[in-house]
Amino acid sequence: MADVITSEQRSRNMAAIKGKDTKPEMIVRKYLFSRGLRFRVNNRKLAGSPDIVLKKYKTVVFVDGCFWHGHEGCKYFRLPKSNVDFWRHKIAMNIARDYANNVDLKLAGWRVIRIWECDIRTKTKRDEVLKHLYERITESHNINVYQPNEIEGYSIAAEPLIPFK
Ligand SMILES: [Zn+2]
Fold this sequence. Notes:
Blueprint: H1 2-18, H2 23-34, E1 40-41, E2 52-54, E3 59-64, H3 84-107, E4 111-116, H4 123-138
Parallel strand pairs: 3-4
Antiparallel strand pairs: 1-2, 2-3
The chain binds zinc ion.
Protein backbone atom coordinates (compact mmCIF):
# COMPACT_ATOMS: atom_id res chain seq x y z
CA MET A 1 0.00 0.00 0.00
CA ALA A 2 2.77 2.35 0.91
CA ASP A 3 4.36 1.62 -2.44
CA VAL A 4 1.15 2.52 -4.29
CA ILE A 5 0.99 5.90 -2.64
CA THR A 6 4.61 6.47 -3.42
CA SER A 7 4.01 5.63 -7.07
CA GLU A 8 1.05 7.96 -7.30
CA GLN A 9 2.98 10.69 -5.61
CA ARG A 10 5.84 10.09 -7.96
CA SER A 11 3.72 10.26 -11.10
CA ARG A 12 2.14 13.45 -9.81
CA ASN A 13 5.55 14.95 -9.29
CA MET A 14 6.65 13.84 -12.70
CA ALA A 15 3.55 15.27 -14.33
CA ALA A 16 4.33 18.54 -12.62
CA ILE A 17 7.89 18.43 -13.88
CA LYS A 18 6.91 17.59 -17.44
CA GLY A 19 3.82 19.78 -17.68
CA LYS A 20 3.53 23.02 -19.58
CA ASP A 21 4.15 26.29 -17.76
CA THR A 22 6.13 24.55 -15.08
CA LYS A 23 7.80 26.79 -12.59
CA PRO A 24 11.36 26.76 -13.98
CA GLU A 25 10.02 27.74 -17.40
CA MET A 26 8.02 30.56 -15.88
CA ILE A 27 11.07 31.86 -14.05
CA VAL A 28 12.99 32.03 -17.32
CA ARG A 29 10.11 33.63 -19.21
CA LYS A 30 9.51 36.25 -16.57
CA TYR A 31 13.18 37.13 -16.50
CA LEU A 32 13.58 37.42 -20.27
CA PHE A 33 10.36 39.45 -20.46
CA SER A 34 11.61 41.79 -17.75
CA ARG A 35 14.76 42.30 -19.81
CA GLY A 36 12.59 43.44 -22.71
CA LEU A 37 12.64 40.31 -24.84
CA ARG A 38 9.49 39.17 -26.56
CA PHE A 39 8.86 35.58 -27.52
CA ARG A 40 6.43 32.81 -28.22
CA VAL A 41 6.04 29.83 -25.96
CA ASN A 42 5.61 26.12 -26.67
CA ASN A 43 5.66 26.51 -30.43
CA ARG A 44 4.43 23.14 -31.65
CA LYS A 45 5.41 23.90 -35.23
CA LEU A 46 9.06 23.61 -34.27
CA ALA A 47 10.89 20.41 -33.40
CA GLY A 48 10.49 19.59 -29.74
CA SER A 49 8.01 22.44 -29.12
CA PRO A 50 10.64 24.81 -27.70
CA ASP A 51 9.67 26.43 -24.41
CA ILE A 52 10.70 29.86 -25.63
CA VAL A 53 11.01 31.00 -29.24
CA LEU A 54 12.75 34.31 -29.93
CA LYS A 55 12.18 34.87 -33.61
CA LYS A 56 14.09 38.15 -33.70
CA TYR A 57 17.23 36.39 -32.51
CA LYS A 58 16.48 33.15 -34.39
CA THR A 59 16.94 31.43 -31.05
CA VAL A 60 14.99 28.80 -29.18
CA VAL A 61 15.37 28.03 -25.49
CA PHE A 62 14.52 24.81 -23.72
CA VAL A 63 14.29 24.58 -19.96
CA ASP A 64 14.94 20.90 -19.40
CA GLY A 65 13.77 19.01 -16.36
CA CYS A 66 16.67 17.06 -14.91
CA PHE A 67 14.73 13.84 -14.53
CA TRP A 68 13.04 13.70 -17.91
CA HIS A 69 16.07 14.80 -19.87
CA GLY A 70 18.53 12.67 -17.91
CA HIS A 71 20.84 15.20 -16.33
CA GLU A 72 23.94 13.12 -15.74
CA GLY A 73 25.31 13.39 -12.22
CA CYS A 74 22.48 15.63 -11.08
CA LYS A 75 20.84 15.03 -7.72
CA TYR A 76 17.44 15.58 -9.30
CA PHE A 77 18.05 12.72 -11.69
CA ARG A 78 17.36 9.51 -9.82
CA LEU A 79 15.67 6.58 -11.45
CA PRO A 80 12.64 5.28 -9.56
CA LYS A 81 13.33 2.08 -7.65
CA SER A 82 10.57 0.19 -9.45
CA ASN A 83 10.31 -0.42 -13.20
CA VAL A 84 13.93 0.56 -13.60
CA ASP A 85 14.22 -0.81 -17.14
CA PHE A 86 11.14 1.11 -18.21
CA TRP A 87 12.47 4.38 -16.89
CA ARG A 88 15.97 3.78 -18.19
CA HIS A 89 14.56 3.20 -21.66
CA LYS A 90 12.21 6.15 -21.46
CA ILE A 91 14.88 8.61 -20.40
CA ALA A 92 17.30 7.28 -23.02
CA MET A 93 14.60 7.85 -25.65
CA ASN A 94 14.07 11.39 -24.38
CA ILE A 95 17.77 12.13 -24.65
CA ALA A 96 17.89 10.73 -28.19
CA ARG A 97 14.85 12.84 -29.11
CA ASP A 98 16.43 15.97 -27.65
CA TYR A 99 19.47 15.36 -29.77
CA ALA A 100 17.38 14.84 -32.93
CA ASN A 101 15.37 17.98 -32.18
CA ASN A 102 18.55 20.00 -31.74
CA VAL A 103 19.77 18.88 -35.13
CA ASP A 104 16.43 19.59 -36.81
CA LEU A 105 16.29 23.06 -35.31
CA LYS A 106 19.86 23.83 -36.25
CA LEU A 107 19.22 22.69 -39.81
CA ALA A 108 16.25 25.08 -39.90
CA GLY A 109 18.58 27.91 -38.91
CA TRP A 110 17.73 28.17 -35.23
CA ARG A 111 20.21 28.58 -32.46
CA VAL A 112 19.39 26.14 -29.69
CA ILE A 113 20.04 26.96 -26.07
CA ARG A 114 19.23 24.42 -23.39
CA ILE A 115 19.38 25.10 -19.70
CA TRP A 116 18.94 22.68 -16.86
CA GLU A 117 16.15 23.12 -14.39
CA CYS A 118 18.58 22.63 -11.50
CA ASP A 119 20.61 25.64 -12.65
CA ILE A 120 17.75 27.98 -11.90
CA ARG A 121 16.47 26.27 -8.77
CA THR A 122 18.71 28.06 -6.34
CA LYS A 123 18.60 31.81 -6.14
CA THR A 124 22.32 32.54 -6.35
CA LYS A 125 23.03 30.32 -9.33
CA ARG A 126 19.78 31.35 -11.00
CA ASP A 127 20.66 35.04 -11.32
CA GLU A 128 23.97 34.22 -12.94
CA VAL A 129 22.49 31.63 -15.31
CA LEU A 130 19.65 33.93 -16.40
CA LYS A 131 21.99 36.84 -16.98
CA HIS A 132 24.25 34.64 -19.07
CA LEU A 133 21.24 33.31 -20.97
CA TYR A 134 20.16 36.84 -21.86
CA GLU A 135 23.65 37.65 -23.09
CA ARG A 136 23.81 34.54 -25.21
CA ILE A 137 20.43 35.26 -26.77
CA THR A 138 21.22 38.83 -27.66
CA GLU A 139 24.80 38.42 -28.82
CA SER A 140 25.22 38.28 -32.56
CA HIS A 141 25.65 34.93 -34.21
CA ASN A 142 25.78 33.52 -37.68
CA ILE A 143 22.47 31.80 -38.25
CA ASN A 144 23.26 30.64 -41.74
CA VAL A 145 25.96 28.12 -40.96
CA TYR A 146 25.00 24.74 -39.58
CA GLN A 147 27.48 23.69 -36.93
CA PRO A 148 26.21 20.62 -35.13
CA ASN A 149 28.81 20.89 -32.40
CA GLU A 150 27.69 24.35 -31.47
CA ILE A 151 24.46 23.50 -29.77
CA GLU A 152 24.62 25.61 -26.69
CA GLY A 153 23.82 25.00 -23.10
CA TYR A 154 25.04 21.48 -22.60
CA SER A 155 26.13 18.62 -24.74
CA ILE A 156 23.97 15.63 -25.43
CA ALA A 157 25.50 12.29 -26.29
CA ALA A 158 24.41 10.86 -29.64
CA GLU A 159 24.27 7.48 -28.02
CA PRO A 160 23.05 7.93 -24.47
CA LEU A 161 25.43 6.39 -22.00
CA ILE A 162 24.17 7.45 -18.64
CA PRO A 163 25.34 6.12 -15.33
CA PHE A 164 21.93 5.47 -13.86
CA LYS A 165 21.65 5.49 -10.13
ZN1 LIG B 1 20.13 18.91 -13.01
